[in-house]
Amino acid sequence: MGHPERRILGGMTHTSVSAYAAPAPKAPLERITIPRRELGAHDILIDIKYAGICHSDIHTVRAEWGDDGAFPIVPGHEIAGVVAEVGAEVTRYRAGDRVGVGCFVDSCRECANCLAGLEQYCTGELGNVGTYNATGRDGETTYGGYSTHIVVDENYALRIPESIPLDAAAPLLCAGITLYSPLAHWQAGPGKKVAVVGLGGLGHMGVKIAHAMGAEVTVLSQSLRKKDDGLRLGADHYYATSDPATFEELAGTFDLIVNTVSANLDLNAYLGLLRTDGTLVQLGAPENPLPVAAFALIPQRKSIAGSMIGGIQETQEMLDFCGEHGLTADIEVITADRINEAYERVMASDVRYRFVIDTATI
Length: 362
Hints:
InterPro entries: ADH-like_C (IPR013149), ADH-like_N (IPR013154), ADH_Zn_CS (IPR002328), CAD-like (IPR047109), ER (IPR020843), GroES-like_sf (IPR011032), NAD(P)-bd_dom_sf (IPR036291). By secondary structure, the protein is α/β, with parallel strands linked by helices. It has helices at residues 55-61, 112-115, 166-169, 175-185, 203-213, 227-233, 244-249, 267-271, 312-325, 339-347, and strands at 5-9, 12-21, 30-37, 43-52, 79-86, 98-101, 104-106, 129-130, 149-153, 158-159, 193-197, 216-221, 237-240, 254-259, 274-282, 303-306, 331-334, 354-358. Helix 6 links the parallel strand 12 and strand 13.
C-alpha cells in the first residue's frame, strides 16, 4: 500500500488515494484514484487495513433503492485501520491507534437526537452524513472504505479493542451495531427469549450478541441447512420457517424477534410467535411495503418496530462488549480484484458470513 499523494484540486490541497468504485449504476467496480481532504484541526487520517462488504453496498451501486447516487461511488462503511496522522487539536487519538469507521462520518451535532447520542437518527439540516454517497459539511461527496485511506473527524471514529483482529472487526461497524442496538434497547438478556430471523451477515451477529447477553436464542431460518452453524454460533434452538408446524409449535413464545431478512415475509405469522407485550423489530429493508393486520397486534399488546445502526457512544459500547466477550464476525478475506465476484456470491448467499477486503491489495 503506497503513501497518499498530495496535490492541488479546485484550489485546495487534497490527498490522492487509490480506491475501488462503481463508475455507473450496475457497472462492475474498478480501481480509480479519489481525493481525500487535508487534515482539519479535529481530523484523523486513517490507514485502512480492511473494509467489509455490506449488502447495502450492493443495493447502492446497483441503484436498487430508487436513487442513482453520485457516481462514481466508492462503497464501504465497515472500516478498520490504524491512525496515520492527526490534526493539530485532536485529543481522542494518536498515530498508531486501532480505529474503525461505521455507517456515518458526521451529523448536525445540534438536534435533540445528536445531543442524546443518537446521531444515527439526526434530524438537523445537515442530517446523518453517510460514509459514502453523501454530501459532507464541506459540500464534497463522501467516499467510503474500499480505499487505502480515509479522513474523518475524530468524534466519528471508534476505538477497536486490542482483543479483536482488525479484519474480523470491520463488519462489526455495521452488522455488529445493527444487531447490538435493538438487542440492547429491548433488553435482551437472562430470562428473555429472543428469535433471530435469518442466519446471514446480520443474523449470525445477532445470534452471537444475544447469546453473550444471556438470552435464550432461537434461529428462524427458511431451512435447516445452516442448523449446525447456528448452534455453533450460540443458538439454543433452530427451526425451519418453511415448515408450518414451526408457527404452531412456537406460538406465543418470544419476547423479542429481530428480523434481518430483506425479503417480504408474512409478518402476521411472525407476530403470532410473540408473547404478550412482545416486539418484532424490522432490520431488513424489503422492496415492497409490509402489510400488518390490526388483530395481529391488538389482542396481546404486541408491537412492531424498526431500528437502524447506533450512535457513536453505543457503537463504542458494542465494540467494547465484543472485545470483552471475544465476539467477531465470521469472515472470508478477499483481495480487491475479487470484489465483483464477492458481490455475486453475496446475492447468491454464498458466504459465511461476511466478505472483508484486504485493502493492501487496492
